[in-house]
Amino acid sequence: MNVQNTQPSGAENAADSVEEQIIRMSMLSFERLPVLEGILGRFSASLSSALNAYSASTAEASVQEITYKSYSESLGDLPSGGFMAVTNVSPGDKSMLTVLEPELLMSAIEVMLGGRTSKQKAWTPREYTAIEKTLGTRLCEVVLAKLGESFSDLHEMSFSISHLENSMKSVALLAPGTGPSVHVTLDMKFEGRGGLLTFVIPYTAIEKVQPMLAQAFWGGGLGADNSWRTLLTDKIQETNVTLTSVLHELSVPMTQVLAWAPGTTLDLGIDTHHEAELSCSGVPMFKAAMGRRKNGSVALRITEEMTEKDGLSDDGTSD
Predict the structure, then answer these.
(1) Cα gap 175→190, rounded to integer Å
(2) H or E element that contains 284
(3) N or C: which terminal CB in the chain sees fewer CB atoms within 10 Å?
(4) Distance separating alpha carbons of residues 242 and 240, to the nearest angstrom
């Protein structure tokens, strides 16, 4: 993942005064958002599975570049003829821009319509058809829904498409041209072909959470994909285990054991208040009271869960 902070070159400013260079530097050097970069990195990792399910094909997504630049510069770097969706950001009710490169949109549509074996055709600039707009909007919605989930560990946020736009003059009015923005480029592929998806996120759209995004990012569980936890939980709940009930343990001298013969009655010293111990694979789990059901079967009622002091530690292992 490539992260850049756009800076003016020395050659361009050789003839400028010190004051002019300071002004230009202040306009072009923007505060980085480390937490946002962490969220986007993990967002791209979880996005692949969502695209696989949506397109019923092999899909991949990765963050290609994160650049901090002015909003007008971000618009100038957008692909020509891109599919532009004005995106509402909540909380704050501000707007950002989601843009699909034409090659990405056409590849996704062809794959979803069964064209996996056909060659990718060169894009000829034209108006998008109603079907292309519908499928492009749905693809953006899948991506934006996953982006909202990636923010959930930090702050509850939602991203929804407000409307489609084909005029650069109109999208230029979404934020101040000299204001800071984050230019995020994702490389997305369906069955090995695709293109770029771009987020242009003005700082005004994320001002509610900007202080949190500007903090140092130390990793951890932020934005983690918890799908493995869900799968593991489901598998554990469906698993059968064998419980062993130990009714009583008694120490008997070897001389008595050697004197046992068929018909010998053993007094175990168990009364009505005695509790049995349940274990799984030799690990004590519960204490239980014994009883008898109407059908004559012996039953156990769990009365206590074994704790660390009873021989079971917090991580589920025996001392």
Answers:
(1) 32
(2) strand 283-292
(3) C
(4) 7
By CB neighbour count within 10 A (0-12 exposed, 13-18 middle, 19+ buried), where does 205 fall?
buried
Query: Is 289 in a helix, a strand, or coil?
Result: strand
Q: Are strands 298-305 and 283-292 parallel, antiparallel or unpaired?
A: antiparallel
DSSP class of residue 312?
A: B
Per-residue model confidence as pLDDT tens digits over 242-279? 888 887 788 888 998 898 899 888 877 777 677 888 88
The predicted model gives 181-204 an average pLDDT of: 91
The CA-based angle 68-73-76, given to 5 degrees, is 130
* Residue 10: both structure tokens together: 């020395």
> Which 3 state secondary structure label does DSSP give 119?
coil
pTM over 0.85: no
Q: If we measure between CA atoms, which residue out of 266, 245, 248 comes closest to residue 256?
A: 266
Rounded CA gap, 293 and 244, in Å? Answer: 19
Strand partners, 197: 100, 186
Which tokens in the block code for residue 6?
């756009």
- 237/243 Cα distance (integer angstroms): 15
Give me the pLDDT at residue 193, please.
Answer: 83
pLDDT in tens, 41-54: 888 888 888 888 88
Q: Which two tokens stand for residue 2?
A: 């490539």
Q: Which residues contact 110 (CB under 8 A, 6 or more apart)?
A: 116, 118, 120
pLDDT above 90 coverage of the chain, percent: 26
Burial class (CB in 10 A: 0-12, 13-18, 19+), 183: buried
Please give the distance of CA 224 from its chain centroid, rounded to a whole number. 5
Q: What is the mean pLDDT of residues 110-120?
A: 69
Residue 101: closest CA among 50, 129, 140: 140
- How many Å separate Cα 16 from the centre of its chain? 47
